[in-house]
C-alpha cells in the first residue's frame, strides 16, 4: 500500500511547476461528464482548490454540466501541461462542496464575476450579447454597492478520486505511466505500458 497523500504530493509538485511554466491557466482541466442518455460531454473548467479529499471547481448548477452532474456524479478530469510534457488523469465522483466552502470562494471572486454568476443563464440559448449585457446591468443596479450574495444556483463540486494517473513524456514513446487506485484510505499503484 502507498501512503494516502503520495498522489497528492506528486500532483502538488507537478502543479507548482506548471504554475511557473504554463503561459495561461495552469489550473485548467478538462471535465468529462455523461449526458442522461450516456453520451460523453466535456469542457474546460478551472481547478480552484485541491487537497487529499479531491479537486474542486465551481459552476452554475443549472448549466449543462450542472444538470449532467445531478444525473450522474461519475466524472473524469484531465490536466495537460504542454510545457512540462506531463498530464494527470483523474476518475472519480463529483460531490457538492459545503455551502460554507462555496460562500467563501464566491466572496473571493471579483465583483464583476459575482454579478456574472447572477446574470448568466449558463448553457441556455441566448438571442444576442445585448441580452447578457442587459442582465449584467440589471444585477449591477440591483446589488449597487452592497454585498452580492451567492445565488442558490451557483456552487462547487469536489471530485473525489478513485484513480489518478500520472503520465510523463519520454523519447521514442518510452513514456512513464503510473496509476494510483484508491483502496479505502490507502492507495495501491501500478505502472502501465505507454
List the main descriptive attributes of the protein structure presented here.
194 residues, alpha+beta, Pnp Oxidase, Chain A, 30% helix, elongated
Describe the structure.
The chain has helices at residues 6-21, 64-71, 99-108, 111-119, 129-143, and strands at 28-34, 40-46, 49-51, 54-60, 74-81, 86-96, 154-168, 176-183, 186-192. With 194 residues, the protein is α+β, with helices and mostly antiparallel strands. The protein has one domain (6-110, 151-192): Pnp Oxidase, Chain A (Roll), CATH 2.30.110.10. Helix 4 packs across helix 5. The chain starts with 5 loop residues before the first helix and ends with a strand.
Q: Please bin the fraction of helical residues.
A: 25-40%
N-to-C order of helices and strands: HEEEEHEEHHHEEE
SS element count, helices: 5
CATH-defined fold name: Pnp Oxidase, Chain A
- Structural class comes to alpha+beta
Count of individual domains: 1
- Report the CATH C-level class: Mainly Beta
Strand content: 35-45%
Number of strands: 9
Low-confidence stretches: none
CATH superfamily: Electron Transport, Fmn-binding Protein, Chain A
Query: What is the radius of gyration?
Result: 19 Å
Distance between the termini: 23 Å
Overall pLDDT, averaged?
A: 94
Could you describe the largest sheet, including whether it forms a barrel?
9 strands, antiparallel
The outline comes out as elongated
Give the second-level CATH assignment, the architecture: Roll
Amino acid at each position: 500500500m502507498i501512503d494516502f497523500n503520495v498522489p497528492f504530493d506528486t500532483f502538488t509538485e507537478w502543479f507548482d511547476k506548471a504554475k511557473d511554466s504554463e503561459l495561461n491557466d495552469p489550473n485548467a482541466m478538462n471535465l468529462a461528464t455523461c449526458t442522461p442518455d450516456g453520451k460523453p460531454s466535456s469542457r474546460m473548467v478551472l481547478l480552484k482548490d485541491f487537497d487529499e479529499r479531491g479537486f474542486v471547481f465551481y459552476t452554475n448548477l443549472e448549466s449543462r454540466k450542472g444538470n449532467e452532474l445531478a444525473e450522474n456524479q461519475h466524472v473524469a478530469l484531465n490536466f495537460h501541461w504542454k510545457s512540462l510534457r506531463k498530464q494527470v488523469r483523474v476518475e472519480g465522483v463529483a460531490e457538492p462542496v459545503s455551502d460554507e466552502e462555496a460562500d467563501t470562494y464566491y466572496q473571493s471572486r471579483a465583483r464583476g464575476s459575482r454579478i456574472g454568476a447572477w446574470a448568466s443563464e449558463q448553457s441556455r440559448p441566448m438571442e444576442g450579447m445585448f441580452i447578457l449585457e442587459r442582465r449584467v446591468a440589471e444585477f449591477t443596479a440591483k446589488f449597487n454597492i452592497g454585498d452580492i450574495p451567492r445565488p442558490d444556483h451557483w456552487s462547487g463540486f469536489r471530485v473525489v478520486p478513485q484513480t489518478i494517473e500520472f503520465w510523463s513524456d519520454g523519447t521514442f514513446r518510452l513514456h512513464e505511466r503510473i496509476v494510483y487506485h484508491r483502496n479505502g484510505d490507502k492507495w495501491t499503484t501500478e505502472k502501465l505500458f505507454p
